[in-house]
Amino acid sequence: MGDSDLLASLKHIGAQIPGLEWCGELVDGRKKQRMCVELGLHFDVQHATSREEACSILWTRHPERAIELAETRSVLELARICGTSAVAVAKILQANKPKKKRQRRAPADDAELRRVRVRPKMLRRLFVLEPELYAYAQEAAAQLGHKNVNRLVRDALWKQVALLVPNCPQFQPARVQPPNGARATRRRTG
Prior knowledge:
Blueprint: H1 3-13, E1 19-22, E2 25-28, H2 30-39, E3 45-48, H3 51-61, H4 63-70, H5 75-82, H6 86-95, H7 110-118, H8 131-144, H9 149-164
Parallel strand pairs: 1-3
Antiparallel strand pairs: 1-2
Helix pairs in contact: 1-2, 3-4, 5-6, 8-9
């Protein structure tokens, strides 16, 4: 809820949920208290006598703040202090865990390229097509009857290579095996 929504709600119905104070500090409802003072409204404050009581009350409103207030890292200890299950605490911790950044792969150096050229493996190259071009390619592939954009691009590229590159075969060589290796054949017994 944004500040303007909270202010409108306070004007219309007043403060429904009291603030929470522990050790003389307002741990929940600071913004609401400030707005109630501006509007001249009464704002109730609930006083917690222990950390466990403050955390268990705060858990129902703002679980992340309850975990911060508990000041411990053990999931079982957090669950005991907040008065909830370890699974619920683990879910909140997992949701707030910083995401790992994916590391980019370094560009291939000359040695790696030479090693790839020597290996008798098929290389798979990925092409990125503009969205509009890809849509046209899908339509063209569907009209040809095979609905395979990769095949359409490969065939068109072979035609261009045959026209432009000297000493190139004038036809597309037959693929001996799929890019992921030879498929195993199954024999049915029965």
